[in-house]
């Protein structure tokens, strides 16, 4: 797959509705959490293990076309990285909220008083 075949939207064209739709599926959200926990690029074979290749390809394409991730081909391998800076610039705090990275004290969870 050539790099020119992979469409990545410009940062200023990332739409909230597309991002929310992409993050709204549990498999894609888990992929994003995996990428958020990595300081470097992640080989695509390391995410969504146990799923059929076509299913993983679909989920990665959805995340890429929404602007959530960047896919970089290297030979026959594909590497993934979260577009954290672009997402933060467009929708501050959304990505952290989605992956459970909450700054500061957390609200107590439990029965209402």
Automatic annotation (TrEMBL):
Molecular function (Gene Ontology), one example: DNA-binding transcription factor activity
InterPro entries documented for this protein: ArsR-like_HTH, HTH_ArsR_DNA-bd_dom, HTH_MetalResp_TranReg, WH-like_DNA-bd_sf, WH_DNA-bd_sf
PROSITE patterns attached to this UniProt entry: HTH_ARSR_2
SMART domains named among the record's database cross-references: HTH_ARSR
Span of domain HTH arsR-type: 8-106
UniProt KW keywords: DNA-binding, Transcription, Transcription regulation
Lineage top rank: taxon: Bacteria
SUPFAM superfamilies: Winged helix' DNA-binding domain (SSF46785)
Pfam families in the cross-refs: HTH_20
Descriptive protein name: Transcriptional regulator
Organism annotation: Streptomyces xanthophaeus
């Amino acid at each position: 797959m050539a790099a020119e075949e992979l469409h990545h939207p410009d940062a200023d064209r990332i739409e909230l509705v597309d991002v929310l739709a992409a993050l709204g599926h549990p498999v894609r959200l888990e992929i994003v959490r995996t990428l958020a926990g990595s300081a470097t690029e992640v080989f695509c074979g390391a995410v969504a293990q146990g799923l059929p290749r076509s299913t993983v390809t679909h989920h990665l394409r959805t995340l890429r076309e929404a602007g959530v991730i960047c896919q970089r081909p290297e030979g026959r391998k594909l590497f993934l990285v979260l577009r954290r800076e672009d997402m933060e610039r467009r929708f501050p705090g959304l990505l952290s909220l989605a992956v459970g990275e909450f700054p500061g004290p957390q609200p107590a969870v439990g029965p209402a008083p």
